[in-house]
Amino acid sequence: MKTDYISDYIEKNLSEKRKRHIYAVKETALKLALRYGADLEKTELAALFHDMFRELSEQDMNRYVEQFHLDPRYLNNRNLAHGKVTAAIMEKEYGIKDKDILNAVRYHTTGRARMSQLEKIIYLADAIEPNRDYPGVEELRKAAFENLDEACMLSLTRTIDYVRSQHSYLDEDTIKARDYLKELKI
């Protein structure tokens, strides 16, 4: 699948900071895909799309949440809504039907139980791309290239701890993702 139309949208509609992030996620995701033998074309497409609509205003994001009949918990929460909204737009407006690509975009912020290899790659690439700078990111970067499941477990656990420490809304998909990996004895 050609990605020129996505790159055109990114170049014309997103801030320099968002462009840098998206392209860094793409490069990181492709490295992870090579490491784990994942489909490079699907990886590139999911990585490019993952934050395409992240900069929508809260009002526009809420309109999409309602238009696509998404869970009302995503109203007034652009951080958690943007992946769900982007996946819906990909399907409805771009004609993308591949569930693996759609889910990789849909859950790239929260994770979910039973994530596919592609979902894990996009989730981790978003967390470890070279522009990310937070305590423990180097350890997570190293883990991502050693064991995909263990790296996801580490990232999910840290996310849960951080969000709880901030007394912020914690999406149940993140808890379910961590618990699923725990059950697998990762």
Automatic annotation (TrEMBL):
EC number: 3.6.1.41
InterPro entries hit by this protein: Diverse_Catalytic_Enzymes, HD/PDEase_dom, HD_domain, HDIG_dom, YqeK
Stretches assigned to the HD domain: 18-131
Record's keyword annotation contains Hydrolase: yes
Transmembrane region(s): none
Hydrolase keyword on record: yes
Top-level taxonomic group: Bacteria
PANTHER family listed in its UniProt record: BIS(5'-NUCLEOSYL)-TETRAPHOSPHATASE, SYMMETRICAL, SLR1885 PROTEIN
Name this protein carries in UniProt: bis(5'-nucleosyl)-tetraphosphatase (symmetrical)
Biological source species: Aminipila luticellarii
